[in-house]
Each structure stands twice: as structure tokens, then as C-alpha cells.
Design goal:
Layout lengths: L8 H16 L16 E4 L7 E10 L1 H17 L3 E13 L1 H13 L4 E7 L3 H16 L3 E5 L4 H9 L1
Parallel strand pairs: 2-3, 3-4, 4-5
Antiparallel strand pairs: 1-2
Length: about 160
């Protein structure tokens, strides 16, 4: 006897919406959302020093904010040939396609200048994405690693080592 689950279309739509909502609230620039605009929060973390920079990212990031941070990273690259980056993602982050494109282009152009890239977040989706991406990043010389929010100090120790 075969059992077939039968769901009402409304239930399926609700479940799909919940999945999409979780993905769109996921803090990584690959995912795009524009609803519920929030003030951008990108700031340099206090333990940044030398060729290592830590940034905290949240809110809605527009092109002007992205341009500001690209200039900061470009200046850091003028001072240091390679850099280590720690990205603390907490809360929601929302970006438009123009920001994602500019971020991606900058990253592709500067891959040889990035030594370590650490992500700190409580997002399981980001954990999976980093796990999938890190072997490819290693091919171009980038050591990439995910840390939970409770492992912030370990992330700093790793990125500075």
C-alpha cells in the first residue's frame, strides 16, 4: 500500500513563503531583497589592525554605502599587498542587484589580494554556503571559514594568524 501525502495549496504556499522569507533574511550578498528597508550598518570592528579588517554588516546596503566600503578596502590594499577579512553578519541584510554586482566584480578583481576570509553568523544557510565555496576559494589562494556568533574570538584568532 502506497501512502501519498496530500496538502492543500494554501499550506504549500505558506511553507514556500516561510522558506523564501528565511532565505531572503539570510545575511549574504548573494540573496537579494528590497522590502522593509533598514538603515545600513557597516562598521569597522575594534580589533581591526594592520592588514586585518573586521566589519559588521546589517540593514539595507545601497550602492553609495557599497562604494564607501570599496574605497576603504582599496585604501587598505594600497597599504598592504594582501588582506585578511572578518565579516560579522548579524540581523537582516538587504542588498540590491547593483550592490551585489559591484561587490562581486570587486571581489573577482582582488581575489589574489585576499588571504583569509572569515564569516561570523548564526545562519545555517551561510554555514552551508561557506562550506560549499571554501574549496573553490582555496583554488585561488583564499582561506575561507565560517564561525558561529559564539566563536567571534576564535574567528579573530584565526583571521589574524
Amino acid at each position: 500500500m502506497t501512502h501519498v501525502a496530500c496538502f492543500k495549496p494554501q499550506w504549500i504556499n505558506l511553507q514556500c513563503k516561510r522558506i523564501v522569507d528565511k532565505i531572503c533574511l539570510h545575511p549574504i550578498s548573494i540573496l537579494y531583497a528590497t522590502a522593509n528597508e533598514k538603515k545600513p550598518v557597516i562598521k569597522i570592528l575594534p580589533k581591526s589592525e594592520g592588514a586585518t579588517i573586521g566589519i559588521q554588516v546589517g540593514g539595507k546596503i545601497d550602492k553609495a554605502e557599497e562604494d564607501k566600503w570599496i574605497a576603504i578596502f582599496d585604501k587598505l590594499l594600497e597599504e598592504h599587498r594582501t588582506i585578511n577579512v572578518l565579516v560579522l553578519l548579524n540581523g537582516e541584510i538587504k542588498v540590491g542587484l547593483d550592490v551585489v554586482y559591484e561587490d562581486l566584480m570587486w571581489t573577482l578583481h582582488h581575489m589574489s589580494n585576499i588571504n583569509k576570509l572569515g564569516f561570523v553568523s548564526s545562519s545555517r544557510v551561510l554555514k552551508w554556503l561557506v562550506a560549499i565555496d571554501s574549496p573553490f576559494a582555496k583554488l585561488v589562494g583564499i582561506d575561507e571559514k565560517y564561525f558561529t556568533s559564539d566563536e567571534l574570538q576564535n574567528a579573530w584568532d584565526w583571521v589574524k594568524k
